[in-house]
Amino acid sequence: MLQRMLSSDAANAAAPTAAAAQQPQQPNAADAPLAAPAAALNPLQPYIPPGLILPKVPGSSSTVRSAEFAAGAYSGAQLPPERWPEVAVVGRSNVGKSSLINCLLGSSSLAKVSKHPGKTQSINHYLVNRNWYLVDCPGYGYAKVSQAKRADWHSMTQQYFMRRGTLVDILLLVDASLPPKEADLAGAEWLLQRNLPLTVVFTKIDKAKQQQAGPAGNILAFRAGLQAAGLAVPAHFATSAAKKLGAQQLLQYLAQRRAHAAQQQQQLLQHSIS
Ligand SMILES: Nc1nc2c(ncn2[C@@H]2O[C@H](COP(=O)(O)OP(=O)(O)OP(=O)(O)O)[C@@H](O)[C@H]2O)c(=O)[nH]1
Ligand SMILES: [Mg+2]
C-alpha cells in the first residue's frame, strides 16, 4: 500500500546520501550494550542486527538538554537548511509519532498529539540541544482528507527521504497493540529496497487488546512478515509514550547513530582532501 502512496517515480532516483549512514561497522559486542542476541530475542527489548552494532563514540550524548520547534514545511522549499544531522519519524496516522517525539524530548506538548488521525500535516523539525533535528513527518494511511492533500503529503515525504543529505536515520513507527498491517510492512519494504536507513520503533506496548497476540506477539509477527518478504530484519525498539518506556534506550542508540555518521563524514572529508 505504501508503495502505491509513495509513488514509484523515485524508485530509480540516485542513491540518497542518507544511505551512507546505514553502512554497518564491524561488530564489537563489548562496546554495544544495546545489542540483544538474536537467538534469545525478547521482542520487547531492543534488537540491533549484528552488522549494525555501532562502537561507542566518545562525546556522543543521549541527554536532551533543550528542544525547540524549528520549522514546519508544507513543501520541500520550506525545509530548513541541511545544517544538523536529523532523525525522521514516520508511520501511519495515529501510530503515536508526535507522542513519541514528546516523550523523547521530555515535553508534554511540543508536538501536537490528537485522537483524530491526520493532526500532523507538515514536516516539522525540532531542534534538539541546538545540534540535531528530530523530525515529525505526516502520517500515512488516513483517508479523511482530500485525495489531493494526501498525495501531496506522501510525495513530499518521499522526496524528503530521498534527497535529504543530513538524514541519519528513519524511525518507522508501528503500533504494537495491533497485528501487522500491510501498509507498515510495505513502508519498511519501500525504505529497505532503497537502502535508506531504517529503525522500526514499536509504539503503544502498554496497550493490549483482549484475545489478541499482545505487543510481544505482534512484534514477532511483524518481524516474521519482513522475513517472509525476503527482507533483512532492521533494528527495532519497543516503546510506550504513555508509560515512558524504551525512550532512554532509543535516545542512546540515536546518539550513537549521529556520532557514527559524523565520524563517517569526517573520514570522507579527509579522504577527499588527501
Ligand atoms: N495507550 C497509548 N496510547 C498512545 C501512545 N502513544 C500515543 N497514543 C495515543 O494515540 C493517539 C495518536 O497519537 P499521536 O501522537 O497524535 O499520533 P500521530 O502518529 O502523531 O498521528 P498523526 O499526526 O495524525 O499522524 C493519541 O490519542 C495518543 O494519546 C502510547 O504509548 N500508548
Ligand atoms: Mg502527529
TrEMBL record:
<comment type="similarity">
    <text>Belongs to the TRAFAC class TrmE-Era-EngA-EngB-Septin-like GTPase superfamily. EngB GTPase family.</text>
</comment>
<keyword id="KW-0717">Septation</keyword>
<dbReference type="InterPro" id="IPR027417">
    <property type="entry name" value="P-loop_NTPase"/>
</dbReference>
<dbReference type="InterPro" id="IPR019987">
    <property type="entry name" value="GTP-bd_ribosome_bio_YsxC"/>
</dbReference>
<feature type="region of interest" description="Disordered">
    <location>
        <begin position="13"/>
        <end position="33"/>
    </location>
</feature>
<dbReference type="Pfam" id="PF01926">
    <property type="entry name" value="MMR_HSR1"/>
</dbReference>
<feature type="domain" description="EngB-type G">
    <location>
        <begin position="83"/>
        <end position="260"/>
    </location>
</feature>
<keyword id="KW-0460">Magnesium</keyword>
<keyword id="KW-0132">Cell division</keyword>
<keyword id="KW-0342">GTP-binding</keyword>
<keyword id="KW-0131">Cell cycle</keyword>
<protein>
    <recommendedName>
        <fullName>EngB-type G domain-containing protein</fullName>
    </recommendedName>
</protein>
<dbReference type="InterPro" id="IPR006073">
    <property type="entry name" value="GTP-bd"/>
</dbReference>
<dbReference type="InterPro" id="IPR030393">
    <property type="entry name" value="G_ENGB_dom"/>
</dbReference>
<keyword id="KW-0479">Metal-binding</keyword>
<keyword id="KW-0547">Nucleotide-binding</keyword>
